[in-house]
Design goal:
The structure holds two protein chains of two kinds. Chain A is α/β, with parallel strands linked by helices. Chain A is built from seven helices and ten strands. In chain A, strand 7, helix 6 and strand 8 form a beta-alpha-beta unit. Chain B is 56% helix and 17% strand. Classes of the chains: A alpha/beta, B alpha+beta. At the A-B interface, helix 2 and helix 3 of A face helix 10, helix 11 and helix 13 of B.
């Protein structure tokens, strides 16, 4: 069976040197993600989740191992090429929203398009407005982050991640700063995007969040210790 | 990013911190303002000196003999005396541009009378001399055409001579002895002071050249011919004309050299202009120091800004900004700040130099060139002092920047 892979890592390791001691944050991670999957990466703090996310998100280089995203061999790329990959293939959603302060929702969403180097002829404003409508914030476009609720801010961040039509949506504890009701709404939004064919990678330590995905990968001490597929993920959304 | 987007983004983030931006720009404002005022003062002094030079001799043209060659060796100006009274008369008669002409005969001699004696230069000149040099009289009068024609023994004293022979007195009507010839004093000139080279212009006496040639020195040689035009615009044409008249008068063939030199007041004044140029430069250099300090202020604030906005930089990098994008953003911010400050500084500098000239009566001159240079300079300051903070921002590690609180 031919599988449509979005990304694949092989033997990914990451070693940090802290003073005289070496910290092995990742010790050989093999991970394959198919297009359209919705995956949760779970693990206790110090398990290597964040390191893995940084490498998958092309913010950091692995110490060894290979990493392909959407057919591009990433580990040998220059800093600038990595920036371009982040711009075109990866959509980041952070725990702390990370929106630019005193900048309207629309301008926040427009930002990735301004750094687009592919010279695609895109209508920046229109594309940004469409992305905001997709996350249900069509009526909040000219609001600044401090005029929006946490859930709305996270929606703006998701719209910003979506606006470049990335290969993978990478969410790092997306509900970490939200109350449970809003968390459910945001997760439902991820579900919706997944149903529309988006590949979603959630990094979380909350089992509730992990349970609404189709596949849970558990990390411990820089290794994958469990990789299981689960059924009927949507059932958990009703909690 | 497009340039317009860059400037827009930069202006937005500058406007987010109005007070800080204002204070940062203040350094550039003061620096540029100071440069403009100082240059205005310097150029004002320069134009004032130009005016002074012009009053020393309004639109003066000097014809000196010389630059003759013997066997191919130039002997320089004054090596060969070929000026005559006829030359001066011919210029006066034929020239369309020249309004006053005077031959000059020099003689160093002792003047005896009053408190004792004084060695000075007797200048034999014509009545036009007073017009050419634009020289007013303190006492009495200058000699007239009749006295000139009749070779009358009359004399006008320079201020220094009058002060030495007749201190605190009006000597008009008194007599002095020059080479045993009694000469009547008919006037005393106002002081003119020293020239740039330190010569006392007032240590001199004037008599009709006819008198000097025949009675006081016995020399008929003309050392120079002075001429002047009514307007400074006529000087170049007048010089050409005088040259043509002189060549004709001397019967110089078409390919031969002139045998005389025609210079104008500006040629003679170049040295003095040079000094004021140096002064202007010096003033501008001192004022530039405040511009430098303003630039350091920008660098300081940009460094603070980079630290404060580390998270913003992280976000921008995470969503695909290259290092160069971040560098350009911060560089544009500092340039926008410095150019804006420069523009305000230009306005203040202009207003300041006007106010200054009204308060002190100093002459100030402001020119479009100064504006252009000041603006270019402040942009340069923005680039120079903005570069280090911008590079620091661009070199940030996105992961650490994102984690920054």
């Amino acid at each position: 069976m031919e599988r449509d892979l979005v990304m694949r890592t092989q033997g990914l390791t990451k070693v940090y040197t802290m003073g005289n001691t070496e910290v092995h944050a990742l010790q050989g991670v093999d991970l394959t993600v198919e297009r359209g999957e919705m995956i949760a990466i779970v693990g206790a703090s110090g398990s290597g989740k964040s390191t893995l996310m940084n490498i998958i998100g092309c913010l950091d280089y692995p110490t060894s191992g290979t990493y392909y995203i959407d057919g591009v061999h990433v580990e040998n790329l220059s800093r600038n090429q990595l920036a371009d990959i982040r711009n075109s293939k990866i959509g980041f959603v952070f725990q702390g929203f990370n929106l630019l302060a005193r900048t309207t929702a629309r301008e926040n969403v427009e930002l990735p398009l301004l750094y687009d180097r592919s010279r695609r002829k895109i209508e920046v404003r229109k594309t940004a407005e469409e992305a905001l409508e997709r996350v249900g914030l069509g009526d909040r476009m000219n609001h600044e982050p401090n005029e929006l609720s946490g859930g709305q801010q996270q929606r703006v961040a998701i719209a910003r991640a979506l606006v470049t039509n990335p290969s993978i949506l990478l969410a790092d504890e997306p509900t970490g700063n939200l109350d449970s009701k809003t968390s459910v709404e945001v997760l439902a939004l991820f579900q919706e995007l997944h149903d529309q064919g988006m590949t979603v990678l959630l990094i979380t330590h909350e089992s509730d969040v992990a349970d609404c995905t189709e596949r849970i990968i558990e990390l411990r001490d820089g290794k994958i210790i469990e990789d299981k597929c689960i059924e009927a993920a949507k059932a958990h959304l009703t909690i | 990013m497009k340039a317009s987007t860059l400037v827009k983004v930069a202006s937005q983030s500058i406007l987010k911190n109005k007070m800080r931006t204002l204070l940062t720009m203040l350094g550039i404002v003061i620096g540029v303002g100071a440069v403009i005022v100082m240059v205005a003062i310097g150029q004002g002094a320069q134009s004032q000196i130009q005016e002074q030079i012009n009053t020393l001799g309004t639109n003066m043209i000097v014809v000196t003999p010389g630059a003759s060659r013997q066997g191919g060796v130039s002997r320089g100006a004054q090596s060969y005396n070929r000026l005559t009274i006829k030359d001066a008369e011919k210029i006066k008669r034929e020239s369309l541009f020249v309004s006053a002409v005077s031959p000059v005969v020099f003689s160093r001699t002792q003047v005896i009378g009053g408190q004792g004696n004084w060695r000075t230069t007797i200048n034999g000149v014509s009545t036009d001399y007073q017009i050419i040099r634009n020289w007013d009289l303190k006492y009495g009068r200058f000699f007239d055409q009749i006295e000139l024609r009749q070779m009358r023994r009359v004399m006008v004293l320079g201020h220094t001579v009058a002060e030495n022979l007749f201190p605190g007195e009006d000597p008009v009507g008194l007599t002095v002895q020059v080479r045993n010839v009694p000469v009547e004093i008919i006037g005393v000139l106002e002081p003119k002071g020293q020239t740039a080279s330190g010569t006392d212009q007032d240590d001199v006496v004037f008599a009709p050249y006819t008198t000097v040639q025949t009675r006081l020195s016995g020399w008929s040689r003309i050392f120079q011919i002075l001429a002047s035009t009514p307007s400074s615009n006529d000087i170049p044409s007048a010089q050409e004309e005088i040259r043509a008249i002189m060549r004709e008068s001397h019967g110089i063939s078409r390919f031969a050299e002139d045998g005389f030199t025609v210079r104008n007041q500006n040629d003679l004044a170049e040295a003095e202009q040079g000094t004021t140029e140096v002064m202007t430069l010096l003033l501008a250099a001192i004022a530039s120091i405040s511009l430098l300090v303003g630039g350091i202020g920008i660098m300081n604030i940009m460094l603070v800004s980079v630290t404060e906005r580390t998270r913003e930089i992280g976000i921008r990098m995470a969503i695909g900004a290259r290092g160069r994008d971040v560098l350009t953003q911060f560089l544009v911010e500092s340039i926008v700040m410095s150019v804006l400050g420069g523009a305000i500084g230009v306005a203040i500098g202009f207003a300041g130099s006007n106010i200054l000239s009204q308060l002190t009566g100093w002459n100030t001159v402001t020119s479009p060139t100064t504006i252009m240079i000041a603006l270019a300079f402040s942009a340069g300051v923005g680039i120079f002092f903005g570069f280090y903070p911008a590079r620091k921002a661009a070199a940030l590690n996105p992961i650490e920047a994102l984690r920054h609180e």
